Fold these 2 entries.
Entry 1:
Amino acid sequence: MPILRAHAFEFISNSPQQTRRVGMRLGAHLEPGHVVALVGDLGSGKTTLVQGVAQGWGALDPVTSPTFILVNVYRRAQGQPLFHMDAYRLGSLHEAWELDLPALWDQGPLLVEWADRIADLLPEDRLEVHLDWIDEWKRRLLFQGRGPRANALVQRLRHDLLGS
Ligand SMILES: Nc1ncnc2c1ncn2[C@@H]1O[C@H](COP(=O)(O)OP(=O)(O)OP(=O)(O)O)[C@@H](O)[C@H]1O
Ligand SMILES: [Mg+2]
């Protein structure tokens, strides 16, 4: 699979299980301060990836799509939180601003579905994951770091997944 830039790579997933396994690898590397921006159409696999991330994080709680509360929190045994936000149903940017996202990502990693809708509220140093539907079972995942911390994350993940 092609390496597009030093801090970006592409991965083709052939099943939801494979997307979850990729998520697990990512979840194992996440720390407070990490922000993962998920960008892709309905059904592209954002929540499926988050399911794996939460598992890799060691979350005890099952992943569900955040709806009315906008942000879900999944805790692991020692209590550390992983935050999962869905910006799809946001009424306004102000509504997202009121959530005080920096206070969340200070405590634990933050994953955002439909992150393009609140890009202005996210840190520049974030990991972007673009998900594209190829066919019923195939998705293209593009991982791209946008700052030093995210770039380091991309390198670790690329090593796990592609061995390079
Ligand atoms: N390779 C794959 N990776 C991820 N999901 C896949 C794959 N192949 C098929 N699917 C299916 O595609 C769907 C993805 O749904 P999911 O809820 O993860 O998407 P989403 O991007 O979160 O959508 P939404 O924008 O509605 O939140 C699931 O039904 C899943 O089983
Ligand atoms: Mg979703």
Entry 2:
Amino acid sequence: MNDNECVEFLQWALPQMRMRWPGFRKVRRQVCRRITGRLEELNFAGLSHYKTCLADHPEEWKKLDSFCHISISRFYRDKNVFLFLQDVVLKELAKKAETNRLRCWCSGCAAGEESYTLSLLWHHVLKPCFSAIDLEIIATDSIDTMLNRALKGHYAKSSIKELPEELLEAGFNHQNKEYILKSQYRDSVRFIKQDVRKKMPGGPFNIIFCRYLVFTYFDEKLQAELLEKILSRLAPGGALVLGKIDHLPCKTEKLKPWSKQDHIYRKVC
Ligand SMILES: C[S@@+](CC[C@H](N)C(=O)[O-])C[C@H]1O[C@@H](n2cnc3c(N)ncnc32)[C@H](O)[C@@H]1O
């Protein structure tokens, strides 16, 4: 299967799984490699056999869906987003907190990079100024292997290379080429297996991260449906953080930009 054939196949198959081709354009090789592996496993000469298989065996669509999960992530991804969260969002939410707890949900958490970055920022940088407030982080993903890696908390250099030196030193022990996250930064993160299309954790949350998942890979109608559910879990005044390539699928009065360039929105009270 060459690239053109795979692209044509994905453009045909993705909309049937409520996904969108533009989200996959740059990462398609990963998906195409997995499909090639499946064709070899099934002893199929090409994609036409696979299309027939999908028609005859609807359960194969689940397999194909699993090939379309992209798990790229890293600590401190999009540095300016975390700087804005640290300097503006978290401080303001902590100052205005009505209880002694802030709640955050990271959807599509991969191996925990995003949720642990937030935990590091909170405990190492902000907690000394807001000692009475706890930050509870719930992180969800649909893939067991990602969640198991998150629970282990061991990372390669490529995952932590964007972290500022201070956070790296505070947060990790370095052993045998691996960076091992210290337990005090893991304890406030709870990982749950959930497919965001079917289930979401109960709100209200003060911050929801939805980066490089719903608004990257899913079709616009599904995006709009999930946005409604996400917003119902966001507390008034809370922050919704999207990825740098993500856009809201429709206009909504419920959100105002908090930092336009960082794709961070605030829920209107
Ligand atoms: C590209 S990564 C983004 C990770 C992180 N949010 C970030 O921005 O660095 C997308 C993650 O979403 C997960 N994912 C994909 N489809 C999902 C679904 N339907 N429900 C929950 N998680 C999903 C993948 O397993 C992967 O870990």
